Amino acid sequence: MAVDCFIVQPGTxxxxxxxxxxxxxxSHRAVFLGALAHxxxxxxxxxxxxxxxASLSAVRALGIEIERRxxxxxxxxxxxxxxxxxxxxxxxxxxxIRLLAGIMAGQPFPSVLDGSAQLRRRPMNRVVTPxxxxxxxxxxxxxxxxxxIRPAALRGIHYHMPMASAQVKGAILLAGLFAEGETVVVQPxxxxxxxxxxLAALGADIRTEGDTITLRPGSxxxxxxxxxxxxxxxxxxxxxxxxxxxxxxxxxxxVNLNPTRTGILDVLREMGADITITExxxxxxxxxxxxxxxxxxxxxxxxxxEVVVRMIDEFPIFMVAALFAEGETxxxxxxxxxxxxxxxxxxxxxxxxKMGARITEMEDGFYLYGAQKLTGAVVxxxxxxxxSMSLVVAGLGASGSTTVxxxxxxxxxxxxYAETMRSLNxxxxxSPITT
Length: 435
Ligand code: S3P
What we know:
about 425 residues, alpha/beta, UDP-n-acetylglucosamine1-carboxyvinyl-transferase, Chain, four-stranded mixed beta sheet, about 30% strand, binds shikimate-3-phosphate
């Protein structure tokens, strides 16, 4: 069987300017909230990736008409949802299935939510438990998808989230739109706040005080004219590549700089990274700006506590940066990495190990001594987009050529990844190899 791989040749510095695709978290929410708003929502710079296309298809299967003006421009005719005639397949999208579970719990018709074998391995009790406390009728398979949801009367709850998760918070708040009485979510730390920002922009009665979010149902959601900013989680790959490859200096434009997402920038700067950030305005209710990054002498760092959530998706690429930093890097409080698309601690330690990296795994993190010399190798992205893209960057900092098996999965969040890297002068090609 032929599979697409990345072939990475180190040796050229990264230079120039690029724009990364639209934010994935916002693109999921734009289709879900566009479906719930009464009227016509216009979305530009939407992310046309595997995960978000799955959410879009699910919304269409709920009877919502979505015009596709182009790959990145949507016109959503929102209003009442209708009973789907088939299982809603969220493929690999964890955000898609968990947010949609919250919406479906409040509908007057039954639905079944399911996904790929990978999604079926991801824990669903984190949303099923609070939704059941709201009165939802949901049956999972021992805490995993498929989720069978039947109509039930929901009531608001006061919920202390055991983990700082934007997906859990989002599912509860979206269910709260259909509940009787107010819903209060208390988060243990600042998980990304996109659901709250969007709901407020749509006219929902929602307010945040410290770590407590209160939603009162009853407002009619109004449609938006919405432009999705670039995804900082995608920007992180060329950014770290520029930091570790000598002679590099790049500019990334129109990146989402929501402070609940910028932990990676704070941590890299503390490591000595030469990064300058210029805020240029707002897009979709989120601060956006330009990021300049140049090759830098990085130092190791201790990472734990509050910042972990603000950079949760960036740990695979952060691990690569840390391997190129002088001294010790020590990460803790990051046990959530084990229940992402893959166990991102174990998989990164194993795959980077094939390139000669020595990293010690801990239950909730890892430590390593940096300034390691990596050697090009054949490594496997394991059907996890962020693992695959991080290994490409490791290959750019290694000696010799690297082959990353599984290039396809990067289109779950970053369509055109190789093209973007090449536009910055990095030698990253996609090529089929026979396995
Ligand atoms: C997301 C929340 C995070 C993140 C995921 C996207 C979201 O997950 O890892 O990629 O859009 O709400 P958790 O909510 O599980 O932390």
